[in-house]
Give the backbone structure.
Amino acid sequence: MKRNWPGVVAVALLVAGIILYKHSQARKIAYSHPTPNVTLPSAKGEPAVLFFVDPREIGETGGCGAILRMERAAAARGLAVREIPPGSDPATEKRYAVTVTPTVIFLDGRGQSTRRLEGEAPAIIEAIRSELTRLARPGR
């Protein structure tokens, strides 16, 4: 049985090239949900929340999708939030040492981090929900 090693290598290189190309193009996709222009901390000295999350995952039933829906509902209720897609704001990611998405950082009125939640485990999602509910209450 004669082996065609050059052909196998050529196909493997072609597949690897296609995968690398697709991966690089996926990072260039524009996000459909604009990042709200929120000056943090709030000019009123109120709490704010940073959401380091991929908005393309809004359709997911759990995890990032649930976090995005909570974030957008909190913004609709008037809470100062900022949605930051991965890689879109390297300076802010560096400032808050974000290495994982999703990461949610709660800030006081001076812009100091008061709580940080990373990941999408059910307990994390519940903690985010609880904190957003607390912050959205009148008279915090």
Remarks:
- Residues 36 and 114 are 21 Å apart (CA to CA).
- The beta strands are 48-52, 80-84, 103-107, 113-118.
